[in-house]
Every structure is written in structure tokens, then in C-alpha cells.
């Protein structure tokens, strides 16, 4: 049977709509992921499935979650709860990014869980080209420590910052400070209002240099 271009578009749209509907049930996805993590065998199977699906992400984020582009974040060693929440936000359009919204709408709930567990299980590559900043440490202690922790590892749905790319950190922090629409719903917008623009690069240096 021949499938016209119009028919293909309709079929793809239906698939994306179905995946998005599943992604909207975030509490169910989180419960499912936590259930899987209680069983080593199921966790290993989910990580293996996530590794296979991660080929979709490799062009930007790297096959193991270590980004191959300086302005794109590492996903390796990120907290799985945080990753799952971001997949959900992209899929529902609550977090803006043209590319990631399309990706999020293609993923099923199970694929989001598997990808989150896979990337969380991968070691992040240390950023050896940056040096820790004394001023950056001071600003981190003042503005970031309470949520992201002493070592920048975050907690559950609070993201790990340690080892992120410096260029990505500068862009993200600048976008928060400027209140860019794609970041407008984040509590970081309010926090970054208290940070001077000149302190962003030292702060990024300190975070990127974290092991």
C-alpha cells in the first residue's frame, strides 16, 4: 500500500501526539523510574535500552552524554529525576527549545525513563581547560550552594552543575539574568537578578572546574 506524504505527516503527528500525552503524566513516569531503580536487573535493562535510544542525542550531547558542542550541556552524571522532568517539560512545551520540543514529542514515557537512567549512569568528563575562580567560589557560596550543594551535584530534580561546559554555563546564566522567554519560568531568573554581569564568567569558571 502506498503512503502519501500527507499520510506520513498525519501518521507522524499522531505518534507524536500519543507520545506527548504519555509524557504529560509526569508523576506516573517518576513513580515508574523509581520502581525500576529498586531492581538491579530492570535498571540494567532500562540503561541498555536508553543507550540504544541515545543515538538520537549523540550529534549534540554525545553518545555517552558528554556534549560534543561547547554551548550544549553535558547530560552524563546528571540527576535522573532532573533529566526526566526536563524531557517532560520539553514534550509539553513548558520549556522552550525548537529542537528539544520536537525530540520530546517523539519520545514515549518509557523512552524518557530509559534515557534518564542511561545518561545518569555515565561518568562526566572533567573540564580540564578551565581553572577554579576565587571570586566564582564566593558567588557560588552566596547564590548556588543552597540548591545545588557544596560539590555542585544538585539533588533529585535540582540539576548537577559540576563539570558542565563553561560556554554553556555562561549562556545559561546570561539567559537567566536577561529573563529570556525560554527560561522565564525558572526560579533562576529571580536569583540571577542579584548577580552582576561581570560575575557570570568567574562563576562559570568555578562550576566548570568542579570535579
From TrEMBL:
It comes from the Bacteria. Keywords: Electron transport, Heme, Iron, Metal-binding, Signal, Transport. The keyword Transport applies. Residues 45-123, 131-211 form the Cytochrome c domain. InterPro entries: Cyt_c-like_dom, Cyt_c-like_dom_sf, Cytochrome_c_Oxidase_Subunit. Residues 1-23 form the signal peptide. The keyword Iron applies. PANTHER family: CBB3-TYPE CYTOCHROME C OXIDASE SUBUNIT FIXP (PTHR33751), CYTOCHROME C4 (PTHR33751:SF9). This is C-type cytochrome. It comes from Marinobacter suaedae.
